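Entry 14. Ran structure prediction on the chain below.
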Amino acid sequence: MPSESARPAVLPLDATTAEMLRGVTTATLTTVLLKKGLRNVWLRGARPLRTGQPRLVGRAFTLRFVPAREDLATPASWGSPISTRAAIEDMPAGCVAVVDSLGTTDAGIFGDILCARMAQRGVAGLVTDGVVRDVAGVLGTGLPVWCQGVAAPPSVAGLTFVGWQEPIACGGVAVFPNDVLVVDDDGAVLIPADLLDVVTAEAVEQELQEGWIMEQVQAGASLPGLYPPNADNKARYEAWKQAVPKGRA
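Output, structure tokens:
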């Protein structure tokens, strides 16, 4: 596992980029990423613990579990320098904690106290392919959580925590520190850090175009030639875009 000095720092996320992505659905992002050849970007099993949570945008802060080994996965491990507690103290405000829980659904990785500390530190949210425990308390912290559900047993009943800020697999997706997560009611989507600017620009444009298409559909237009738009409809859209008030486009 990486030494403390080798762990990458969480990079700041440009405020304008973050605000643009808050207006983009994860469904749109998967389509834009598909056009760039990236099919495996939706984290399986990461479902909203509570519906209506705000759309999250943030840099990935990664944590990793491996299967439980009896000499390591003990309550005493919670006080170890390599522990979920220590990892949480490294989380900067605005990050999204992304946890590789191996899809385990019978051991809760975090409970109310850990989630409360994350909320206190300004962590944007928690995304995992596993489950949480103390669900009433977790919901009470206000920390947005996406997971597979809940289970009463603690993490050491099925998992051993081994490190943070290293590449992980979460929900079948490769997640590297500082990749960007966008998370809404459809789940969590990863944007590779190196593609952030181009994906953001294309996603905002696609949202705008699909908003125009929806207006046409609601006015009674048929789909062939409209979705996707043919040359005539592309020209109509471009003319509309030039005419819309600044700020909407």
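The helical segments are 15-22, 26-35, 84-90, 112-120, 135-141, 196-218, 231-243. Will compare against last week's run tomorrow.
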